[in-house]
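Data deposition worksheet. Section B asks for the primary sequence of the deposited chain exactly as it was used as input, without tags or linkers unless they were present during the calculation. Section C holds the resulting structure in token form. Section D is free text for depositor observations; keep each observation to a single sentence. Incomplete worksheets are returned to the depositor.
Section A, Depositor: J.P.
Section B:
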Amino acid sequence: MTSSIYIHLKKMAISERTSSSMIDPRTGFCIANSTFYSKRKPLPLPANTSLDVTTFISSQPHHGTTAFIDATTGHRISFSDLWKAIDRIAHCLHHDVGVRRGDIVLVLSPNSISIPVVCLSVMSLGAVITTANPLNTVSEISRQIEDSKPTLAFTTPELAPKLADSGISIVLERVVELTSGVRVVGVLSEMMKKEPSERRVRERVNQDDTALLLYSSGTTGRSKGVISSHGNLIAHVARYIAEPLEQPDQTFICTVPMFHTFGLLVFAMASVALGSTVVILRRFELHEMMAAVEKYKATTLALAPPVLVAMINGAELIKAKYDVRSLRAVRCGGAPLSKEVTEGFLEKYPTVDIFQGYALTESNGAGASMESVEESRRCGAAGLLSSGVEARIVDPGTGRIMGVNQTGELWLKGPSIAKGYFRNEEATKETISSEGWLKTGDICYIDDDGFLYIVDRMKELIKYKGYQVPPAELEALLLNHPEILDAAVIPFPDREAGQYPMAYVVRKPESNVCEKQLIDFISKQVAPYKKIRKVAFIDSIPKTPSGKTLRKDLIINLATSKL
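Section C:
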């Protein structure tokens, strides 16, 4: 195993030997070092230091037959054909395109079978995958390209024009004539058919090498690239091997975006290792999803909380129109799931269990989760700590480490925790301590049975249908408007979306700019999920003496007003 993982596990072993008698088996709390330990099975991590995540996944035994199904076309790929395609594409990328260890490859695509094929191929070469939201505007994608500097991009013909001015070589999903400005160096559908002309000499890839660069929104407004190693991703997959999502014969419906950590890590990696079948929807549409459940006899859905709300609201029509009796479980993540929504869903779908989970991009799926029906009955809890995870609850004001049933900021530690932020040492130091603790920015507590509860967020990200919207990014755009003096953006609660961005705006004297004009002004510059959907005009924005916007004061004001 890598030196970093080895040192971490060695420290854990020493800690457990010296203080195991002080660990409460019920809570997982160790009184000697004020640390919570996972009550789950230990992680089965490999000892080989020269190991890429693709090879680790391919080495896992299972009895699965069909790996992926495209819900739109019905096209399916078996596990044997999947691994042939991965090997062929890796060969083409290496010999024909010149992709080498350490190169960064951008994936810009809606959900498709191509995403796991491309990602596993690229990572087997020791190259790095970075993903972009296909809904993002050209300028938003350009900023990510400027930061990550990819040497190659995989995309679809429909999205290729967004990369026309980037100067990046492109591999297209399928053959099609494109307008000028796009330099195509390969076609994925053809690469998948091409037999390797010679045996590929594999470069040495270490678990410490970077495998993934996912961009995480921040309240500062600038998206940050999260650096995850092969060892981090191996630990993520190993967690599902230790605690499988479901039985191997499960069929999942994937509607969550595969450019996001939830979709990519679970459905392009863990599901492949387990031998599960994943039915992929290119985008979420409620009735398309339910039709896919019926057609493929799906057993498990992976959803963000707003989709659960849509299923509750449309329950009568859904059950009248579709046969969903095969459905047994819902995996929910991306945003907190309220007790009211959980109970409302179970009332409408009494034979379907909900399994809540909590993780961050920076933790590579590690955090907390529900793994049994008994655990899932803990409405309001995020679950027990993931296998291999340690946690601390820290008072954000004093830095004092707290105990059981005490509230503070959640800190996480373990082999899945990312290495830091790409070319951003300051942000890395702010978020990950010198001892490797990830400061989540979430206010939590752990109860008498070791269950994690999310109380509030220190960070001020807005969660729209599971998407993260940084308020500072929208504020910066508003301040560029010639008729605005000051602005602040906060979350507005919404039953279906969870939250959406609302702006408080201070107009310049004599300005008559209206709500619709500002909504349209922002809509032209951002992806649809970032749109401002409500504007209120005020005389001044509340701020600290140092000039920091007091968004919480505006949130309190909103709660007490009649807006």
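Section D:
DSSP finds 17 helices and 28 strands in the chain.
The radius of gyration is 24 Å.
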